[in-house]
Write a structure and sequence with these properties.
about 210 residues; alpha+beta; Glutaredoxin; seven-stranded mixed sheet; two-stranded antiparallel ribbon; 7 helices; about 30% helix
Length: about 210
């Protein structure tokens, strides 16, 4: 799947740092079901759906809910007008989300390739790049995390291990070392300095 973004600028969430090597792209995207989320932080319906999609993603990938993260990736393709608008939106979303820069020409190319006419839209891709679901918004709204089970089987992932917590309604607490176990991408040149007065990180995953 990393081949889809080969030679393209792809940003790691929150600090807008660039994934600058093929190895980073491969680690983030290969052998995973990939969601291309077309949306905008300024769109009222997107704002509502984004909260649902955030919960959907975390319940499948965050160690608060599952013993082992599902093979699921997400790239946000935004219609945000400015970098600041996109940054403000992504700061409330999971850290593992990746994004194209706002206004990126490749984002418009993806809209045309997958016939995206309105937002929000979620295109589900197999690791091969083949379209699994043309627009999964209603499926995610209706089924929640259970939708992934069908995608996982259809995608024929190499590793099908998925271990849900015993009780999603009463998830286990995190250990003190849990943050150290989280996936960290190597980022070129380190993290950019936060603008003065802007909050660092966010606590949506705590």
């Amino acid at each position: 799947m990393s081949s889809l973004f080969s030679g393209k600028l792809l940003l790691a969430n929150r600090d807008q740092d660039e994934l600058d090597t093929e190895r980073e792209l491969s680690s983030a995207l290969d052998n995973k079901v990939l969601l291309l989320y077309f949306g905008s932080g300024q769109c009222p319906r997107c704002q509502s759906f984004s909260l649902l999609l955030k919960d959907f993603f975390l319940r499948l990938t965050d160690e608060f809910y599952v013993e082992r993260a599902s093979q699921l990736g997400l790239v946000y393709v935004s219609r945000d007008e400015t970098e600041q608008q996109q940054r403000q939106f992504l700061r409330r979303m999971p850290r593992r989300w990746l994004a194209l820069p706002p206004g990126d020409a490749f984002g418009r190319e993806l809209e045309l390739r997958f016939s995206v006419r309105e937002v929000p839209a979620v295109v589900v891709l197999k690791p091969s790049g083949e379209v699994l679901v043309r627009d999964a918004v209603r499926e995610i709204e209706r089924l929640g995390p259970a939708a992934f089970r069908g995608w996982q089987e259809a995608a024929e992932l190499l590793d099908r291990n998925f271990s849900p917590a015993e009780d999603w309604e009463q998830p286990r607490g995190r250990s003190l070392t849990e943050p150290l176990r989280r996936l960290r991408y190597r980022l070129r040149g380190g993290r950019r300095r936060q603008p003065k007065g802007e909050a660092e990180g966010g606590d949506d995953e705590e």
